[in-house]
Structure formats: C-alpha cells, structure tokens
Specification:
Largest sheet: 6 strands, mixed
Shape: globular
CATH class: Alpha Beta
Number of strands: 6
Number of domains: 1
Strand order of the largest sheet: 5-4-3-2-1-6
Helix content: 25-40%
Mean pLDDT: 82
Order of helices and strands: HEEEHEHEE
Oligomer: single chain
Number of helices: 3
C-alpha cells in the first residue's frame, strides 16, 4: 500500500470520527480482522500510531439483542488500557431506526461511565473507506493482518 492509499484512512479518522491526532500518529496504521467470539461479531481493528485503537463492527441483524455491544466496549477499553493507547473508538455500522440507535448509545454509555477516552460512532457502511467494511458474520475464521502501513 502506498502513502496515497493511506490517505482515505486518515481522512476517515480525522473527518468522519473527528480525531485531532497529530500528523506523526498517522505514520503507522495497522489493520487486522478479529474473528467473532460468542455473541460478539467479527471486528476490523485499526491501530493508528500505537495511540488510537478503533474497532469497526457491523451491527447484527437484531442490533438490540444480547450484550454484543457491551462486550465490544469492555474488550476495546481493556485493550486500550492494557497496551497504553490514548483512545478507543467503537464504530458500529448499519444500525437503523432511532430506537435502535438510542439503545446502542445507552448501552455504550453504561459501559463507559466516566471514561472520556472511549467513544461510540454509529455510521452507515457507506461512510467507511474501502477495505474497512466490518467482517461479515460468516467470516469468523482465524485472526489475520490485512495490512500495515508506515509513511
């Protein structure tokens, strides 16, 4: 992947997610696919400059069911703290309807009480740059690195 291929990720993180990370943070971007586990759907994980951890997940068909969002929030915050990253952002694509969105926001807020370094973003899949679409539920195979980019 060339430096120009890297720019869509930076535009997504800065523009869509509102990250104000300094330029040097974007010199290294690692993208991995993490398989689903239990009620937790598969995740696309981005690590931006060893400082920002982002998990991208497609909402299950019944987005209000089970505790998948809470599991992802707890897992992401734990990974952020364990590895010393500055922030964790959970990006959920595909939730529809105001009630579903409010429910997901409420669930996340309960798991992140008092944590101003964890953020939830509810987006349409079309807001993601190419290659960041959350792994479909059927692709729950082994973990694998998609790519690592260094500028």
């Amino acid at each position: 992947m060339t430096d120009t291929d890297h720019d869509p990720i930076e535009r997504f993180v800065r523009g869509t997610l509102g990250c104000h990370c300094p330029d040097e943070v974007f010199r290294s971007v690692a993208i991995n696919r993490l398989p689903g586990a239990g009620d937790r759907p598969p995740v696309v994980q981005l690590l931006i400059g060893s400082r920002l951890l982002i998990h991208v997940v497609a909402a299950p068909p019944d987005a209000a069911a089970a505790g998948w969002l809470e599991q992802l929030a707890v897992h992401g915050r734990s990974a952020r703290d364990r590895h010393g990253y500055n922030r964790f952002r959970l990006v959920v694509t595909g939730p529809s309807g105001a009630t579903t969105r409010r429910d997901l926001e409420s669930r996340f807020a309960r798991t992140a009480v008092g944590d101003d370094r964890a953020h939830l973003h509810l987006l349409g899949a079309d807001a993601l740059p190419a290659g960041l679409a959350a792994a479909p539920a059927a692709a729950q195979g082994s973990q694998g690195t998609i790519q690592t980019v260094a500028k």
